[in-house]
Amino acid sequence: MGSAAPYLSGQAAASIFGEALGLFTGLTHTAGWLITHWWVPATATLIGWGVSEIVMRRLARAASAQRMALELLPSRHFDPSLEEIFRRGVQLARASTSMPWWAPRRSKTVQIRLRADGTAPLRYRIEGPAGAQRLLSITPFGPDVTVKKASPLRDKPRKHAVRAEFVLRGKPTAPLREVPLEPDPLQPLVDAVSDLRAELGDLAEVRLDIQRAPKWVLRARRVQLMAQARRVERREAQRAARWVRQDASGIEDSLTWQLQQLVAGKQGGGVGGRRLVMPPVPRRVEAAEALGKLAEDDHLVRVQLLVMCASDTEGRAQARLAQLQAAFDVFGGGARWAMRGWRLGPWRFGADRWPSRRGFERRWKLGHCQPPRTNWVRLEELTGLLKPPTVHCRLPLLATDLPTFQHGNPDLLLQGIYRAPDGRRRLVATHARETLFEVGVGKAGGGKTERALAQAIGWAHAGGGLMFLDPHRDSWPRALPFLAHDHLAERIALIDLNAVGPTPQISSWNPIGMHQGQVAHEVVEAVTDAYASALGWDDASAPRALTILTAAVAVLVAVNEAVCWAGRPEDQATVFHVRALLTDAGFRKAVLAAVEGRLGEETRSWWRTVFPTLPPDAFAVVLNPIARLAANPVTRAFLGQPVGVYNIRAAMDDRMIVWVCPGGNGPTDRLITALLARDLLRAVRSRRDIPEAQRVPFRAYFDELITLTGAAPETIAAMFEDFRKYRVHVHGMTQLLARLPIAVRLSLVQNASTLATTAGSRSAIAPITSEWGDNPSPDVVAALDRFEHYMSLTVRGRRVGPVRITGPHLDEVFADHARPHRTTALENAARANAEAASLSQLTTRATEQLSRVSTLLTQLTPTAARASKENHYS
After folding, report:
1. What are the tens digits of pLDDT across the range 17-56?
2. Which of 118, 166, 236, 803 would disulfide-bridge 337, Cβ 3.0–4.6 Å?
3. Model confidence, pTM
């Protein structure tokens, strides 16, 4: 038994050795077989990978079919804080996981699409899982951003397209540059697409996919980075040790060191006599320093950045991609965005070439996110891309934002010349139906009137009717060469009270004439209110004057009604008959007797009981302005005709082009202007008898609003408040908004569809720029060149601008329409349409009108008395 134990132990050892040898032999044979038949496991591995990839792609395609799209529309004053943007980033990261459990990771993503195709400067869309729609629809940005369901985008094929994928280069743990919010971080991208031309098929789109970081991939990446950091530290320690030894050896072998040893009496040679050199020890690698932005799990995401540019014109897509590449350089810091691929001479191998192109197009089409392993960022690094353009972003004006003006198009109203970022200039316009009221402010000679003239001439050539009221007449000779066309000659009428030339010709107007079918009480109200406005009368300061004038005009209007009813409109009374009515007892008796049946009981009672009690000096305040009108031969001739030709209501309905030049801004001119303005208000309001759809659009241009509003402030204010209802639109120009009456100024600014200003003093410009939030500031506007404007416009119901616009110059914009050799013929036609006659002839007729009316009244009195008696007995 004692000898059996060693035997058994030896046998066991032999057995174990045999098994080990057999295992080793088997492994050797297996390794040999694998080396010999390596293609078998390789093929199996490829088949397994291919099958799994096919399954993953099918699942990812099915998951991608359940996606939704939202479009974010920021307001003009959208100005988010960093916290709001960060919260939006957290929402996007959370939304990327709102997928079914079986969805592959490549489909678990939220995509930000920045797109420019000519329909908008930069459209901002969010696409993601359908289950995240409610989460993404409510943003931290509040009401400043409108979120709506986006419609599918269908692009037509372009002839030329380029693609690029951007990856993070540089130190893998370093962050991108912290870009401030002002100016907008999206500004470089907007500038890169600002010269995009839709008519050439230009398209540019940037897609940023955001995906939550997979934990196991992140841990593996951290292990890799820590190992790399330790290797780097060891290499650095070894390099430092090598340099220390070399430095020590160099010192000991130097002559200086040897002499020092001899002087000190130290002997020793060889290696044993040398100093002991302690090499540096590798320092400990700190995780926070080695991992950088990857040290913490919170708010860490993977991103994929894809770009595609296309165009129908060769070379434009490549140039656009280069512009976008430069735009992304703005975000470069410790890390930067760079195009993936490599370059060989003139060729670049990347997303546009095999083998990367097919994968790029699959990810582009399906929205799959398969970023490279370096594309790790924190949400704070994406601040500039997590929100739409803000108030600090300058957006270019596209043709869809501001239409291009077309000569002869009645739907467009010329506004000026817009210079695009690429230097192209185009005539821009607004829609005529939306341009209700315009206000132009700026210093004299800045281009306000020139712009208004260009707009009026364009509107006239398109078939529109207008009235241009210019107290100084300078606009008429300036516009004349561009209106000298046969198709316009029959529509133009000139009402000129400046008495130009040796034999001046004047048109005529009877403010109280009834031959044009006016309503009696509206005429009385218009004339009385015009006098009150020009003279500053109201019920508190001049009640008696208002009463006297109202009663006198009411009687004369009744006379004119009777005269027209009798078929004798050439014998109508004029405003100059007020003096005879108030001071000539015989004339007054004849008038009251002739129209007794046409006056109301209250008016007749006033003339019988109140008028006789008035002292003679009570009439002076009424007669004084009329006497001034009579003393001026031009105004006497203009207002003293029984059958006036001027009829602004007919001009509106017939699309006439009426140029009115009152002649100045003196007291008499202000009274004429007040009468014209009040008559315009009456005529416009009388359009209520026409269905709204049948009202012909008409535009009134008021140059020198200070002069006009000085005569009729309440009337001008009422125009800006009421005319829209009757399809009459007012365009006003003034040097100083502050000098306008408060009522007019408030109505102007409140209702202005277009608000424009040229250069001027800071105090004069400040009221306009304050409406824009002082962006641009008064200092910027004050430095504008001549014919340069800043203006805000209304297009499709929203405000555009303020934008810098060059005012149109007639000699440039309407050069093809100029007919200088036909100006004389057109002026003669314009005066003929206004039935202008010589000043001497009209003055003589006005002087004889009093006797004509008196003669007619004696003929009308028996008829009037008989009619009154019949009415009494009936």
Report:
1. 777 777 778 778 777 777 777 777 788 888 887 888 788 8
2. 166
3. 0.77
